[in-house]
Amino acid sequence: MRKLAKILGEADTVLALTISIIAGVLGLTSVTSASVTQNAILVTLGILSISILRDRWRRSDAIERTVSVLQNFTSAATEIEQVKSILEQVQVALASQSLTHILTTAEQVASEHTQARESSGRWLFRGGTGTYIRAVTLPGLIKSARRERRPLHVRLEILDPTNEDVCERYARFRSSVSPLPDGTGQVWTTQRTQLESYATLLAACWYQADYTLLDIKVGLVGTMGIFRYDLSDSRLVITQDDGFAMVVPQEGLLYSSYETELRTSFEQARHVQLDAAKQIRLSSEPTVGEAVDLFKAIGVPLVVSHDLIADIITKAIHAQNPYI
Questions:
Q1: Of 85, 213, 283, 286, which is most buried with the most CB atoms under 10 A?
Q2: What is the pTM of this model?
Q3: CA 131, CA 178: separation in Å to the nearest integer?
């Protein structure tokens, strides 16, 4: 059936071939006249011409169909790319609008802090005594700012070391959730809490003298919380001792709300007059006498034993990461 259909599809070619054979045979046998043979040849040529035109029309139709299919394919491919682009934009938008994402390991928290410090021109902190601030955050921020020769704005809200009640509550809480020594090799006591806050104050003054483009302010509070807040230009990292951490991206909906919260809280703290520290010349390794003069100048009396001032200096200048 397929062969028959193919033959019928080429009927004009078969007809032309048949006429040419018959005309040729009749011409050779002299059965017909020369004029009849010539007419047969003309008919054959006419049929062949029609066949050629028909083939061209078929090819033209096939080409048009092919072009149409290719155009449709190109259009579909373009639409697919557009849809893909829209989906990518939606994905970015959803990610940017994400409220928070959770960190569950110390390595993730450390990595997030590192990224937060990169090229950040400001840092807002609210927490306990600022131990990690002294050991990691402040040195890292100043190193980056010094390399890029740009100003750095830092606001620290820490526990008031002269408020023994809040220091005792903080120490009791920390020791209850983490009874073992931390990365510094020490456990939390009221005295240690006071020393750590004093050390953060001394470190703030020392770094202020070391890097003149540092604008740092410290506020002291008489209440404690269980979370620490670190806000940079790119994100807010909220951490808790030996627990999960949350990250709020700068593009997120809650970032500006948390920033307002931290600024409002800082404004209510007792501000330390760190500018007065500029009157005190601090050595690269401050002496006990320099430390005593410094705390007197900034209006924060030393309520710990004189023998512990050397420990304050060590904690301020050679701070240890408590989470290693």
A1: 286
A2: 0.71
A3: 15
